[in-house]
Amino acid sequence: MDIARLFKKYGEYLVFFGNIDIRALESNSCIEVDSELNKIYTLVTQGASCMLHSDHSISPKVEYETFCYYLEYGRQMKTR
Questions:
Q1: Which stretches in the chain have pLDDT values below 70?
Q2: What is the DSSP letter of 54?
Q3: Rounded to whole angstroms, what are the CA distances from 41 to 10, 36, 63?
Q4: Is the separation of the CB atoms in 40 and 52 below 8 Å?
């Protein structure tokens, strides 16, 4: 789903959940994780309410360090 389009149309009524591409997490690349989280951060700065989660369950392909990075970076979105 196009979360940016949905935010423009329904943003004042919805809290968005997910929309982080699991493949970015599975790549275990901080650059790809940053790219995915920046999509959400852009909406948060515009007033969107978002709950941090991937578009699917977290798979065993995601390394623990990557998951910790993802969570920490995501938590910082509120304070940047």
A1: 78-80
A2: B
A3: 17, 9, 23
A4: yes
